[in-house]
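Explain this fold:

***
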Amino acid sequence: EGLVVSPNPNYHGTLIVPVTVSDGDTVSAPFNLNIVVVPVNDTPLPFNLLTPESGTEIMVTLMDIMNNTTLEVSWSSSFDADEEDQLIYSIKLGAFGEDTVVVNTPDTSVNITYELLVATLDSLGMNQGDLIWTVFVSDGIDTVDADNQFSIHVNAVDVLGIDESLIPEVYALHQNYPNPFNPTTKIKYDLPENTHVTLVIYDIMGRQVQTLFSNHYQEAGYRHVVWNGQDRFGKPLASGMYFYRIQAGDFIRVRKMVLLK
């Protein structure tokens, strides 16, 4: 019959098992059986978003921006059987399938400023609308998304009132600022008419590392978006040269920028 060995939970390393053989009358001298136990990472367990409830409406005023008003978001705890692992939660905020990691924290709640909500709306070319937020957790190896995602309706018309007379005459993609940058930079572009916009970041090898907009409908105007130097998985990118490419209707332009840490 086979030999069954059961190490302690979460054990890894070389397990030394003394073995003897007997015929019923005599017993052999013991010898050691060395068993190498390879560690396997335990994935964080699922968790849920808590507050604010999906569908919450938020009115942002200039006074809120001046007073640095914040919105508390919270979620339940995940669990990792590997006690030495530290769990880091990351909040994603966006709309139209385009989102950005805005906070990384070991806590299960965080305060997001109204100014950040307004900046997110502005980067999407809106002064009000539904923003989707969710959270994912990582132990440094595996990543698990929350079991749900919530929407909040943000009205920032008081802050982002649009002057219809400020419409550019031609398409343009401007040099990012600052450049070089660390860790964030602003990319400005001009839209003389309503159109769908795709704005993508590439590394020096031509690999797509981040999509800021993908065929996203935007109204005419002077637009900008802030990039935080992270890839589409929310991980910081290494120092180096990157390229950003915009396509708006038939207009296509590419510029380069430098991330310097």
